[in-house]
Each structure stands twice: as C-alpha cells, then as structure tokens.
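Exercise: predict the fold of this chain.
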Amino acid sequence: MTRPLRLAFPGAIYHVTSRGNARAAIYTDDADRTTFLALLTQMVHRYHWLCHAYCLMDNHYHLLIETPEGNVSQGMRQVNGLYTQDFNRRHGHVGHVFQGRYKAIVVEKDSYLLVLCRYLVLNPVRAGMVRTAQEYRWSSYRATAGFDAGMTGLCTDWLLAQFGGERAEAGGVSNELTCW
C-alpha cells in the first residue's frame, strides 16, 4: 500500500514532528541539539520558510513551519536526512535515527497557531524536565520572550502581534521584532 500524499500548498502552516526510532533519544547532548537547529536554520533560509516555534525534546521534536512556497517535503527530507548522517557519524551508529517519516499536520494560523505555540514550548514543563518554559534552552520560548537570540530564522512577528505591537508590550525584554 502506498503512503498518502502530503498536503502541500503555498502559505501552508504545519505542525511537524518526528520521534526517535523505537522511541530512542535523537539528541544525546547539546552538540546534537545545536547541529539540528543549525540544519533547521539552513532549510528555513534555503526554502524561505517561517519557523514560528520549535521544541527539541530528548526523543522527538516539534516545529511550527510556514511554507510560503509549499515545499515542506523538500526541506524536511534535508533536515532529517542530514541530521541522521551527522548523528550516525558522530556517535558511530548506523541505520535509522527517526521512526518512520515525519508527521506534518496542516494548521490554521488564525484559530490554532497560538494554542499550538503554547503547547510546543510547554512540552518540557509537562514532561517534568523544568519548572517553567523559560528554564528550557531548546525551545523557541526564550527567544520569543526576548531572553535569548534563539535560532537564526525564528519568526516571532505574528506570535508577538497576538499580544501587542512590540515585544515589550507582549511581555518580553527587547523592542525589536525579528523574522530572519
């Protein structure tokens, strides 16, 4: 039986997630997480994506990606494929890092994106890894709130506009709105 085709169109927003093969860790240390974010940043720029939020957990990740050109498959194939090669080379492993192909669920910007952003950055809190989202280094929360620079290519404009016109009004530290 063939896999169903992915729904892809210009301007689509996806909740993208992938889990480690057999639920194994896909990041063993900060270097792995840094590598993944660097690859994601490259694809954000190459494919002109807008990354609204992300969260890297130990055995899976969550991304909120907007694709102005309808090209989620091309970029995610690169992110997961290149990350797998790097992970296996670095750790002396062979074979799959991810369990099957990534999931990409189309979401509506106006009705659901804000709820989904909140869900993503609260993952480490719900998992008992930290007490607050601000404590977790590997999600977009700290950058969105203005505590860190965050991943290059993170687009916080739409999300912050839901709370106020400037980052200071939205509850963060800096007045500068950024989107790669």
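Check your answer against the key: Residues 172-180 have pLDDT under 50 and may be disordered.
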